[in-house]
């Protein structure tokens, strides 16, 4: 009850301004995770295009401030971010909508990316828009039917999946396809435009990089095979969930602040994205690292799965390989090692294609979809 009292006191202390858009998140500001990075970039971009946006997050540790975290991500203008106890996972998701109902109804739009928060808002009769990042957990937890019901009843105005694959699955489950807006992840193009173009001749002995959480469902077996086969120097950057095999060509380092990602790509020629079908988000994903690799102008070899095929075309802007076939990945790398002209063409096309996926473009599309901009 103490935390509840603190939350209500915090609410009374807020300024009485009326944002156009209230964005509710469950990411902790002190945890440098992909969902936080995407949320902050999207909210900052919405503010940059003139949508007055307020972001509510769970409370965060005093070791970090919103300004510090935004600076780490290359966000120059810190958006309106407020911490609220009732968004902490220890509390039922119905409490925040219940106690903040008046503020939520004053806003022109309410936006969430958590299915639990969407259900909490719907239970309180609060209309909102829901950004869909994964379908499998919603199926497993029995949430999807209620989400679809809220959508058809317009308690959820717009469903915003991050891939066409997810959109098709939502329509198949009964969603109204006229109120679905597909919005892939984005990239801060400014942070990558200074990177030099790929030097294809360096692919004779490529520096291969993978960034992100390292696990079997993200292709650890592919990564270790590439190192063991002598395909190049394989560098893994991120938290590792499994014990790594000690190999001369395999190097691991912990996750780095997001602002350092561009420099890591500058020190590499080839990016691998070996997502497996067993990954819980494989049916709906739109990984930021994909768009960052494209913007960096590096050669990409990625898993041949539906959400990835929406962005990458084999032989045009990347090479695609069967997720669970190490030999096919090795063959793709060796093709690039011996065909520098192809490698240069793929990297150049990927960089050109990345221009469509700026955070500003993403924010503008969302603002139009939810009725805040024409």
Automatic annotation (TrEMBL):
It is an enzyme of class 2 (transferase). One of its GO terms (biological process) is lipopolysaccharide biosynthetic process. GO terms for molecular function: glycosyltransferase activity. It comes from the Bacteria. Signal peptide: none annotated. It holds the Pfam family Glyco_trans_1_4. Keywords: Glycosyltransferase, Transferase. Its EC number is 2.4.1.57. This is GDP-mannose-dependent alpha-(1-2)-phosphatidylinositol mannosyltransferase. It comes from Candidatus Thiodiazotropha endolucinida. The gene is pimA_1.
